[in-house]
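Hey,

Quick one before I head out. I ran the complex with S-adenosyl-L-homocysteine overnight. Inputs first:
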Amino acid sequence: MDYTSKKDLMVETQLIPRGISDPRVIAAFRRVRRHEFVPEELAGEAYSDHPLPIGKGQTISQPYIAALMTQSLALSGSEKVLEIGTGSGYQAAILSTLAQEVCTVESDEHLLRSAMTAIGRQNIRNVKYRLGDGTSGWPEEAPFGGIIVTAGAPYIPDPLKQQLADGSRLVIPVGDLSHQVLTVVERAGDGFRQYDICPCIFVPLRGRFGWGE
Ligand code: SAH
């Protein structure tokens, strides 16, 4: 299977025509080998235009949605970024090429372990992992130059807003269990500006400031 040309085709047909234009984001999606983050039997579908199951009822996001969320963070490269919902580790691997450091939190031990293995295999060394409920953020590592939540939340968890550095953005799907809206919250001093990007469908964000355990 020629994964390199599938990966290039994904960027050319799914990302660029839909408005992914940040050259650094495009380079990240050209570089990271998505087929190494999906179950082996689905590797042939890794670059298809839809999400894929990764076990434990969870999914790796559709490439376009991952790219859109990444672009919305508007990273320059010097940031420390927080991700809630490590899942397969793909999004963390993408972020690791666009930021100084990535802190990622996952509540499922099995998923976290296989994500760590997949990321380690790609020789990525700037990712820190934490097992637990990410809805409280990671206070010891805050503030963050960007926060991305890759599971659907009933509302925006306040601790995540508080852990945003001035001028930085939080990207999070907010809505009910079956449909959400991709939402961006931008911090300006003590104030926050909020706007919607598009409708989306994510697995639920569990935890204290999510849908509960
Ligand atoms: N970003 C992932 C996709 C994540 S799917 C990727 O690139 O593959 C959503 C993940 O969020 C699941 O793995 C789920 O276990 C995790 N999750 C749900 N609620 C959580 C919480 N409160 N804290 C941390 N992780 C959570």
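The pocket of S-adenosyl-L-homocysteine is lined by residues 58-61, 84-85, 87-88, 90-91, 105-108, 111, 133-135, 150-151, 203, 205-207, 210 (CB under 6 Å).

Talk tomorrow,
K.
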